[in-house]
Amino acid sequence: MKAATTPSQRPRDAKLLVVGANGRMQYALRARLVDFLRTGDLLVANDAATLPASLTGIHLRSGLPIEVRLAGRRSLAVDDLRAFSAIAFGAGDHRTATEQRPPPPALAVGDRLALGPLRAVVRRTLGHPRLIELAFDGTPDAIWAGLARHGRPVQYAHVAQPLALWDVWTRVAAQPVAFEPPSAGFVLDWRLLHTLAARGVGFATLTHAAGLSSTGDAALDARLPFDEPYRLPAATVQAVLATRHAGGRVIALGTTVTRALEHAASRRHGLRAGAGLATQRLGAHSRLRVVDAIVSGTHEPGSSHRELLRAFASDAVLARVDAVLLANGYLTHEFGDSVLIERGDVGRHPVAPRDHRHDLLGTGQGPIAGASARADDAGDACHPTRCDTAR
Amino acid sequence: MNTSTLAGMRAAITGGTSGLGLALVRALQERGAQVAFVARDAQRVRRVAAELPGTHGIVGDIADKADTHRIALQVNAALGGLDLLVNNASSLGPVPLALLADTDCEDLEAALATNVVGPFRLTKALLGSLAAAAREQRGPRRPGALVVNIVSDAAVTPYAGWGAYGASKAALAQLSRIWDEELREHGVQVLSFDPGDMDTPLHALALPDADPATLKRPAESARELVALIESALTPTETGA
């Protein structure tokens, strides 16, 4: 798939491939996402703001340039800020593909780094020359000020122009805890939130420290996603439970929302409000307990995000999806096009089967069929050929 | 004092190192709020933060687009969320005051940048946090989150010599009304507040010869503003 190279969160021609529980596919404009949601559904977003997690500076022992990309934290507590896991690179910047970046200077415990106004020490090495635990000097306020002033959003070679924070904050961005943008949330704006409310679709948020999607190193990429802390508000738990009770669907806006909700639901006492650390990997063998459908970017086969989609749809369906995305020029990566996948048989929850749910539209049809009729009537369904010429 | 509605509330104030802003930082902290304040001068920010332990001082210029998200990031990080934003930092426009016909367009633009565009941008950047705070309140009596924009009677009355300031504050007042209309459904109230003629550095710039004895103390205006905030954020039967 081709990468989206322009940092626009809501391009007018952004595409959405809708994949029903039965594997049936439909083309749509992403701006029409709301037409595929029903009264009684709940859309859950990750409201994490994106940190300027890329810090350049000097490895003081060698005097050599270094870039560190903050990659993980133990918790989201505002004052639990001193220690981060981080990926280190040698000279260069995002314009060089991560795979081509030289390694960092040899890093040893106790090495000090000067990163703009920030000073940090390598506290541990983590089993890979690029992966370290980094501790910053100073008070939390001083560390936040240093990050705000000196840090830049993590970015990759497919977007050439330097990203600003406003390029990577969603409209609902709040706590700055994500290392890369929770980009499925780029679709959100306040008009959409208004429309959701007007149509009786619920909206709730959680905060999840979305981690790096790629390190440029196969051995490290194989360890992704790292453990990611999250916080689930009581109001969101209440909304999820009420939605399920009433037979609505819980629709996760992005892989991070899915990971947080499913992690919370897998705990011994079930879905509870509060802090958690998502450690699990979701894939073909995961049973989804909470999430009925996911809105996600398009992902290259083999990536951890693509793996997660296997919890929603069979490999046969996903193979067809991949082929359709490729054939129709869907763009990938954070500013690319999207998919909406309703979980099929592979993701069926063993305790609360789908049969107990009501068809809230009262059309007697499945959700996708009902949505299809609306989209077609409006004349805005995006057919592959038309999408190609639009691009 | 900790019986106040404001106890534990997370509040951010721009222009927090002098005048009304500083008085408000003190008043909110006295009532148990967690307070972050923003100002341009690093030394003054450090001094106020040291003088009022527990507050979070943030250096930034709201008139500078590049500072907006840096400020928002630090506010969110320091407080862990946000219930109240007070856009207080203000620019007088040309100093000394000038008739509109003598006002350089750059001075008008500077007044608009600080008094209209800056509060607009910062509110937008912090809206995610404010709306999250409103969503996370539970029960039928949710007061929601609040933005207060500091305006002036010069926004309403056409005082000669106050063109840049008055026009920019009028724009801010109208922005507040429209935003209040649009954000109500998200649980965010947007109000404007006219603190009156106070004995502040800004007033001294405008009217250096004014007798301070005839002017309000900033602390008095801050008390009135706190009463407005308490009233807006007191849980009600109808709720936001």
Secondary-structure map:
The complex is a heterodimer of chains A (391) and B (240).
Chain A (H helix, E strand, L loop, with lengths): L1 E2 L11 E5 L5 E5 L12 E5 L2 E2 L3 E6 L4 E9 L10 E7 L22 E4 L2 E11 L2 E6 L3 H11 L14 H4 L7 E3 L11 H9 L3 E7 L9 H4 L6 E5 L1 H13 L3 E4 L1 H12 L7 E5 L14 E5 L6 H6 L5 H13 L3 E2 L5 E5 L24 H12 L5 H7 L1
Chain B lengths: L9 E5 L4 H12 L3 E6 L2 H10 L4 E4 L5 H15 L4 E4 L17 H32 L8 E6 L12 H21 L4 E6 L7 H6 L11 H16 L7
Parallel strand pairs in B: 1-2, 1-4, 2-3, 4-5, 5-6
Task: Write a concise synopsis of the structure shown.
The complex is a heterodimer of chains A (391) and B (240). By secondary structure, chain A is an alpha/beta fold.
Structural class of chain B comes to alpha/beta
* First-last Cα distance of chain B: 25 Å
Which regions of chain B have little confidence, pLDDT < 50, spanning 5+ residues? none
Hey, roughly how much beta strand do the residues of chain B contain?
5-15%
Which fold does the CATH topology of chain B refer to?
Rossmann fold
Query: Percent helix among the residues of chain A?
Result: 10-25%
The helix tally of chain A amounts to 10
Continuous helix count of chain B: 7
- Major β-sheet annotation of chain A: 9 strands, mixed
Q: What's the total count of β strands of chain B? A: 6
What profile does the largest beta sheet of chain B have? 6 strands, parallel
Write out the strand line-up for the largest beta sheet of chain B, numbering strands in chain order.
3-2-1-4-5-6
Q: What is the end-to-end distance of chain A? A: 14 Å
Structural domains of chain A: how many: 2
Instruction: Please name the CATH architecture of chain B.
Output: 3-Layer(aba) Sandwich
